[in-house]
Structures are given as structure tokens and as C-alpha cells.
Amino acid sequence: AEELMARSEQLSVAGQLAAGIAHEIRNPLTSIKGFLQLLQAGVNREEEYYKIMVDEIEKIEKITSELLFISKPMTDYKKIENVSEMINDVVTLLAPQAKLKNIILLWEQHNGQSVICDRSQLKQVFINLLKNAIEAMDRPGSITINNYLKNNEIYIDIIDEGTGIPDEIMTKLGEPFFTTKQNGTGLGLMITRHILERHGGKLEALRNKTLGSTFRVILPTP
Ligand code: ADP
Ligand code: MG
Fold first, then answer.
1. Among 183, 157, 178, CA closest to 168
2. Alpha-carbon gap, residue 26 to 19, rounded angstroms
3. 180: Cβ below 6 Å to ligand 1?
4. Which one, 15, 104, 155, 187, has the greatest CB density within 10 A?
């Protein structure tokens, strides 16, 4: 195991989040305000400006909806669920996105373990990780998903053949708003970690021997 994401435990998560939210929302707001002022002054590039403003508003929407997800209570919704079934749903959901990039999803459904969880939250974990895996691939290849039982814990490995994780980024994973992507929010891994903690589980990021990285989810058995 290369490294566990521990950074956000050192700093106050709430403090990081507040600063991050303020920053990430202020930027698009400043830009929207600027374009509104230009429109008010009567420029004649309305169509272009409206498009930019809608993009900026969508950025804010994306951030706020991801943040709302964290604040959802979940203890009341914990039930016994089948891990394989959930992964299967997520693979089906993201298969078109993978296909567009000529990525093969290698997933063998076998009798999955049971886990006590909030189904929609745990599915969100697999969505976040599989999406990242797909986004990390800059050429055709495959993503393998393995789930198995080890030391009486449930393991789910998502193994990609993507660009991998450079050293300087390893410690930043899971920090709110840390992203290397043009259209990223940098909230996916933080939310993932958060959901897993609420389930008594954890997330590990590992470097593959050959190509890409592996994100490993470990969950307790019921
Ligand atoms: P986002 O996907 O919006 O950038 P995440 O929290 O999901 O936010 O991921 C944060 C960053 O971690 C990514 O921008 C990327 O640099 C890195 N990362 C996450 N998953 C992978 C992966 N499978 N391979 C390489 N880098 C990854
Ligand atoms: Mg992501």
C-alpha cells in the first residue's frame, strides 16, 4: 500500500471546506457579475456572454450539489445490501462513458458479499472512483474491478491503466477542491472518504507496478 490519504485529518476539514467553497464560488460569481455589467453597458456580444454565464452558473451548481450530498443524513437508511449488485449497477451506468473512450470494463460478477450500508451513498463511492479511473485513461485500455473477501473484510479494487498518481499529488488526494482536471471539482475523493468513514470503511490509493493506479475500498463485513 503506497499511502493512505491522511492529509485532511491534519488540517481542520471544516476550515478547508469553508475556504474552498468561498474561493470556488466567488470566482464564477465575479465572472458572472463582470459579464452582467458588460451587458448592462450595452455591448453587442450578448449570445457569447450568456453562454459563459450559464457555464459559470453550472460550475456553482455542480459544487453545491456535491456538497449537499455530504450533508445528507444516512443512518436511517442503512440496510443489508449486496456489493456485487451495487457494482453491477454502477458499471452499467458508466459503461457508455467508458465505451466512448474505448475502455473495456473488466468486471466479473460473482456472488457478492453483503454489506450494511446506505445503498445510494455507497453507489456514489463506486461512481466517483470508476469515473476517476475512466478520466485518468488517456488512451484505450481496460479498467478492472475486483471484489473479494480478505481478513474478514470486503475489498473492492478499481484498477486503471491511466496516467497514475505522481508523488506530489499522492498527499493531496482527498483534500477538498484539489483537482488536476479542467472541469473537475476536486470533491469526489473527499466525499468518497467521508462516506466510507461513515460505514466504518476506508480508501487506499495504490500505485500499480506497471501502468496506472488502484483505488481500494475496504469495508467491514456485517
Ligand atoms: P476531480 O475528479 O473533480 O478532479 P477527485 O477528488 O475525484 O476530483 O480527484 C482529485 C484528483 O485526484 C484528480 O483531479 C486527479 O488528479 C487525482 N486522481 C483521482 N483518481 C485518479 C486516478 N484513478 N488516476 C490518477 N489520478 C487520479
Ligand atoms: Mg472525480
1. 178
2. 11
3. yes
4. 187
Q: Please state the pTM of the whole predicted model.
A: 0.83
Tally DSSP H helices, then E strands, for the chain.
7, 8
Distance of CA 132 from the midpoint of ligand 1 (Å): 6
Measure 164 CA to ligand 1 centroid, in angstroms: 10
Q: Which residue has the least CA distance to atom 7 on ligand 1? A: 188
Note the ipTM here: 0.99
Strand, coil or helix: what is 71? helix
Residues 6+ apart with CB under 8 A from 155: 146, 147, 148, 149, 216, 217, 218
At 162, phi and psi to the nearest 5? -85, -160
From the alpha carbon of 185, which atom of ligand 1 is closest?
3
pLDDT in tens, 58-87: 989 988 888 887 776 666 578 999 999 999
Per this entry, what is the length of the chain? 222
Question: For ligand 1, is residue 113 a contact (CB within 6 Å)?
Answer: no
Neighbours of 222 (CB within 10 A): 11
Helix 119-136 and helix 83-100, axial crossing angle in degrees, nearest 10:
30
Ligand 1 pocket, 132 CB below 6 A? yes
